[in-house]
Every structure is written in C-alpha cells, then in structure tokens.
C-alpha cells in the first residue's frame, strides 16, 4: 500500500514538472511571437518612412535624387517590406497596406529598369526578373487583401488601376525571358516564359482584361528553341506540342525536334519522328523524305521501298518518293517497273535530268543484258530475233537519253557515252560520231 502511494506521489510530482515546462515553453513561444510581430511591424514602419521620405523629396524637387539613388532606395525598401510580409507576422488587417507599400517600391524599380532596357543602357537582368515576380505577386495580393470601398472617397478607381498594372505586366515576363536567355541564364528564361504562358491562370482576376503582345504558342516557340540551344532536351520536349502550333515557325520547330534526336544519339527515335512528320505532310517535307530514304537504304533496300510506298500512298506527286521507288526497282533489275516510276518523275518535274537519264538507262541496261545472251544462243533464228530485240531496246533508250541531254546540254560526260552506244547499235553512225567527239 505504501509503495502504491509513493508511486502516485512520484507520478503527480513528475506531472507537475511537465506542466511547469509546458507553461515555460508557452510563455517563451508567446514572447517570441510578440517579438516577431514587433519586428515585422517595425520593418513595415521603417519601409513606409523610407518611401515617404523619398516620395516627398521627389515631389518637392524631382532632381533631388538621381536615378541610381532612387533605385538603391527602392531596392532597400522592397527587401525590408518583403521580409515583413514573408515573416507571416503582419496583422491580417494591415496586409493590404503592406502589399501596397511593396508595390510602390517594385513598380518604381520596374519602370527604371525598363527605361534602361529600352535605351540600350546596361541593367541587372536578374534584378529585373526577381523584382517583376515580387511586383506582380504584390499587386495580386494587394487586390486580394484590400476591401473595396465605393463612393466618392472610396478606393474603387485605385484598385482598378492596380488591376490594370497587373494585367499590363504580363508582357514584362516575355522581356525578362529574353533578357535572361541573352545572358545565358536559360533556367530563369524558361521559368519566365512559363509564367507568361500561364499568366492569366496565375492571376485570374485580370483574365478578362489581359492580352499579351504575343500568343501563348509563340511564347512556347521561343521557349522551345531556347531550351534546344541550351541542350535542355527534356525541357524542349515539354514545349513542343504547343510550339508546333505556332504556324510561322512550325516547320523549323519540327526539324529541330527531329535533329535533336541525332544530337542525343538516338538514331532510331530520329527515324521514327522523321517518318511521322514526313507522312503527316509529305509536300512540306520532301528534303527530309530524301534524307530518310537514304537512311532506310542503309538499313535495307526493302525498308527503303516500304517507306517510299507509304509516302506515295499519302501523296502520289512526291518526286523523291517516286524516284526512290524507281531506284529500288532498278537495283532489282525490274526495269519495266523502274521505268514507270522514272517516267512519273518526269511528269512531276519535266526538266529532271536524273529521271530522264535513268529512264533511258532502264532500256539501255535491259538491252545490254539481253545482248550478253546472244553468243550463247545456238538457234540462229532465235539469236537473230534476240539481236533485233536488243537493237530495238537501244533505240527505245534514245528518246529518254536525248531528253537528259536537253536538261544538261553542257555536260556531255553525263549522257554522250550511252547515246554513242545506242546510235552505233541502231546504225546511226553520224550521230554516234557526234557523241564520240563530245567525249
């Protein structure tokens, strides 16, 4: 029984000690809170005095302070009131006034730096961006924490002007992004571009009156290319879908996206992406189709043909796709089909030397192959028939090769040899001699 009583005494004793500790902690916390509030109020009061002193001096004599002095004073005041606000110890009723004071400083800083930028004077781009963030957040928070008072002596018009300031500041984030990108601070630049693109979402109160000088897709275009130049491929990919909707730069954006896969060392992804773009708009991507055909040729002639077929299925008038298809058929010695596609090329582009020459080469090659069989034919009648057929094929080659000559009249090394052979075999000795003289 005594032991139980003793235990109770000990428990009560310890509990009392804990209660004393809790009271002490609460007292210390209350004191710390009071001191923090006092410090925040003191910072706000000091900042207000700094602004009033500066403002009064400038009103009495605008030349009493040079621009650098105003800038320095505003930076100090902005930092001081910013600390007070961030402390969280400004009374709720005074928050509107605190943000109003912060805006007085940040708006002046913004105007000075913008003036210097427009005059091509040196200025601190990081300060411009950081101040811009503080300024727009300050304007937003002032509007949120200031009660509207109507009437002749109310603040309605004043708050509307603040709202206008906030709406007009969206463009400044585009400037900030460009400034930071020029200074190779790409991370800041992309952050500023993001802020511009999402400006009315961040500050919904000005959504109905805010119109940025350039559309969101153009901002995304700038951000996309800034990220690419910095080798920030993940960031670049993030902007692509929006950037490619900017019509004036869509083609270049697609090409950069494709090129970036080669820069990353991902050839397979490059081919996949390039193919997708080529098939989506073949006419606008003929150069890329040509590059991709060469890529597939190295991977296998069947893959080259398959891609050419896909392009032609989308648009039968794509010159290089028809030429690629003809190339595959010619390589397989399927001369008749090759000729069909080469002739299609000449229909698309009448002065296409390569297509005319290759069309002639289809007949010429067929003739040469047939001619090589004649010596092995024992039946004289069949041998004679084969010879006549060979001559006919050489003759059929001539019109195509002559068209090639028309396309490149000053380059006989491209066509004179085959024409000489054709004219010789078909018994046109004078023309054969003419070709010989050109070689």
Describe what you observe in this structure.
The longest helix is centred in the N-terminal third of the chain and has 59 residues, at 2-60. The termini are far apart. Helix 13 runs antiparallel to helix 14 (301-314) and helix 19 (416-425) runs antiparallel to helix 20 (429-438). The relative contact order is 0.03. The protein has 3 domains: 36-54 and 63-147 and 158-213; 266-349, Tetratricopeptide repeat domain (Serine Threonine Protein Phosphatase 5, Tetratricopeptide repeat), CATH 1.25.40.10; 352-439. The chain contains 20 helices and no strands. The model has no long low-confidence stretch (mean pLDDT 93). With 439 residues, it is mostly helical. It is elongated. The chain is 79% helix and 0% strand.
Q: Which descriptors apply to this entry?
A:
439 residues, Serine Threonine Protein Phosphatase 5, Tetratricopeptide repeat, mainly alpha, elongated, 3 domains, 20 helices
> From N to C, what is the helix and strand string?
HHHHHHHHHHHHHHHHHHHH
- The low-confidence parts are none
Kindly report the oligomeric state of this protein: single chain
Structural class by secondary-structure content: mainly alpha
Short synopsis of the structure:
The protein has 439 residues and is mainly α. It contains 20 helices and no strands.
How would you summarize the topology of this molecule?
Layout: H1 2-60, H2 67-87, H3 95-118, H4 125-145, H5 156-168, H6 170-182, H7 186-197, H8 199-202, H9 216-229, H10 233-243, H11 250-263, H12 267-280, H13 286-299, H14 301-314, H15 319-331, H16 335-348, H17 353-374, H18 380-407, H19 416-425, H20 429-438
Helix pairs in contact: 1-2, 1-3, 2-3, 3-4, 4-5, 4-6, 6-7, 7-9, 9-10, 9-11, 10-11, 11-12, 12-13, 12-14, 13-14, 13-15, 14-15, 15-16, 16-17, 17-18, 18-19, 19-20
């Amino acid at each position: 029984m005594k032991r139980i009583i003793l235990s109770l005494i000990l428990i009560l004793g310890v509990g009392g000690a804990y209660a004393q500790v809790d009271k002490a902690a609460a007292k210390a916390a209350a004191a710390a809170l009071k001191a923090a509030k006092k410090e925040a109020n003191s910072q706000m009061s000091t900042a207000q005095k700094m602004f009033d002193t500066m403002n009064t001096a400038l009103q009495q004599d605008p030349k009493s302070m040079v621009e650098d002095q105003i800038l320095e004073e505003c930076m100090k005041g902005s930092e001081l009131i910013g600390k007070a606000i961030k402390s969280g110890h400004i009374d709720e009723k005074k928050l509107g006034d605190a943000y109003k004071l912060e805006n007085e400083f940040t708006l002046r800083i913004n105007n000075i730096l913008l003036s210097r930028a427009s005059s091509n004077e040196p200025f601190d781009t990081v300060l411009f961006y950081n101040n811009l963030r503080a300024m727009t957040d300050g304007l937003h928070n002032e509007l949120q924490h200031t009660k509207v008072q109507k009437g002749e002596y109310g603040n309605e018009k004043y708050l509307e002007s603040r709202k206008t300031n906030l709406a007009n500041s969206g463009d400044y984030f585009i400037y900030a992004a460009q400034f930071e990108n020029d200074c190779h601070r790409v991370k800041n630049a992309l952050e500023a571009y993001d802020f511009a693109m999402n400006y009315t979402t961040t500050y919904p109160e000005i959504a109905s009156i805010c119109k940025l000088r350039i559309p969101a897709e153009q901002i995304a275009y700038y951000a996309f290319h800034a990220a690419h130049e910095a080798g920030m491929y993940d960031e670049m990919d993030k902007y692509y879908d929006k950037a490619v909707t900017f019509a004036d730069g869509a083609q270049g954006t697609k090409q950069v996206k494709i090129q970036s896969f080669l820069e990353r060392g991902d050839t397979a992804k490059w081919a996949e992406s390039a193919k997708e773009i080529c098939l989506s708009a073949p006419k606008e991507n003929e150069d890329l189709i040509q590059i991709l055909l060469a890529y597939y040729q190295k991977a296998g002639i069947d893959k080259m043909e398959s891609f050419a077929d896909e392009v032609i299925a989308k648009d039968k008038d794509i010159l290089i796709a028809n030429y690629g298809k003809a190339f595959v058929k010619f390589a397989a010695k399927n001369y008749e089909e090759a000729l069909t596609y080469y002739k299609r090329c000449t229909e698309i582009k009448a002065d296409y030397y390569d297509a005319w020459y290759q069309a002639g080469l289809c007949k010429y090659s067929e003739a040469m192959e047939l001619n090589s069989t004649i010596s092995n034919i024992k039946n004289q009648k069949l041998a004679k028939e084969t010879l006549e057929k060979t001559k006919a094929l050489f003759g059929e080659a001539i019109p195509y090769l002559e068209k090639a000559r028309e396309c490149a009249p000053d380059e006989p090394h491209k066509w004179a040899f085959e024409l000489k052979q054709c004219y010789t075999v078909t018994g046109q000795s004078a023309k054969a001699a003419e070709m010989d003289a050109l070689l």
